[in-house]
Amino acid sequence: MLTIEASKETQRPVLRQNSLSGGSFIQDHQQYKPSPPATQTFTDVLRTSNSLLLFNANPVCPDPEKVTDSGIVHSIFDRSPNPLPPGTPKLVATIFYKSSTPIHPHLHPDSSAAAGPGVTLPSPSIPVGSAPTVDIEKLPREPPPPEPEPLDHLYGPFVSQLCLTNFLQIIEALQTPYRRINSSHRCLDEEEQPRVVEVTVSPLPNPEYLSYDDLRKHESIWRFEREWNVEVVLQMESVFRHYKRLAVFDMDSTLIQNEVIDEIAKFAGVEAEVASITARAMNGELDFSASLKARVGLLKGVPADVFEKLKSIIAISPGALELCKALKALGYRLAVISGGFQPLAEWLAGELGLDYAFANHLEVDAGTQSLTGKLVPSFPIIDAARKRSLLRSIAAENSIPISQTMAVGDGANDLPMLHEAGLGVAWRAKAKVQLEAPTRLNGESLVDVLYLLGLGDEEIKELTGS
Question: Known catalytic residues?
Answer without folding.
Answer: 250, 252
